[in-house]
Amino acid sequence: MRAELYKVEGAGNDFLLGIGEWADRLGGDAHLVRRLCDRRRGVGADGVIALSALNAHSIQLRYRNADGSVGAFCANAIRCAARAAVELLGLASRLTVETGWGTIPADVDGREVALTLPAPRAASVEPDIVTPEHLSDVRLTNIGVPHLVMATSGVADLDLATIGPPLRAHPALGPEGANVNFFEVAADGVIRMRTWERGVEGETLSCGSGMVAVALQVMASRGLREAVVAPVSGDRLTVEALGEPPDCPTRLTGPARIVAAIDVSAEFLATS
């Protein structure tokens, strides 16, 4: 297989995607991942995707966060990998993706990619965390990776750089912490949300598994089976409950785009 590196993005969550030799590099070299993901001295990305074709209907995805740590699951990365598998590798538009969370079915329809996700690993719980008064309905759930979810008003006005880090690493969440998702339901019913992501240690323009975590909580409280979620990127994604929320499988549908092919210089690769 040819060795190529691409920039891809799913609803504003951006990644470097490697196939062939580049997949081996991204999957195995945490130091290189950190350098490439640096937004000033590298290419810039929230994480990297090592993509390998298993057969005409199946791919394997290995994911690393921007800090080089291994991520068991990233829904937006999976959607990007599925589109890349169809357009770059010529695989079938209905395929399965092998991830650290298990096998995820994906359907690619042009720029729209839908994933069928398992139910949360366990029922959501209310962690022992004292939050400011403007934050409520605090729940901890696991959509492949742990997510702390909380409602607020004026989500666009939150100072995530101040409130995000201590919540992300709160002792009640365990030694690895969790992604932190803040949301409000707008008058039109659209869920508007922001995420502070571990592994990036900053706010991202969207978080796929975070959108599912938030949507399940909202659907459960409002008796819904479908929700539209708008992350900071301005994209709109749909989460469908495939059972009774919040402890059910879901279908996440939204855009995934191939941005550019990247030719990394030999000088960059030779730099320690």
Task: Give structural notes.
With 272 residues, the chain is of the alpha+beta class. It has two domains: 124 residues, Diaminopimelate Epimerase, Chain A, domain 1 (Roll); 114 residues, Roll (Diaminopimelate Epimerase, Chain A, domain 1), CATH 3.10.310.10. It has a 17-stranded mixed sheet that branches. Strand 7 and strand 8 form a beta hairpin. The protein is globular and about 55 Å long.
Layout of helices and strands:
Blueprint: E1 4-10, E2 13-19, H1 21-28, H2 30-37, E3 47-55, E4 58-65, E5 70-71, H3 75-89, E6 94-99, E7 102-109, E8 112-117, E9 135-142, E10 146-152, H4 160-168, E11 179-185, E12 191-197, E13 202-204, H5 208-222, E14 226-230, E15 237-241, E16 250-255, E17 257-262, H6 266-270
Parallel strand pairs: 2-3, 4-6, 10-11, 12-14
Antiparallel strand pairs: 1-2, 1-17, 3-4, 4-5, 6-7, 7-8, 8-16, 9-10, 11-12, 12-13, 14-15, 15-16
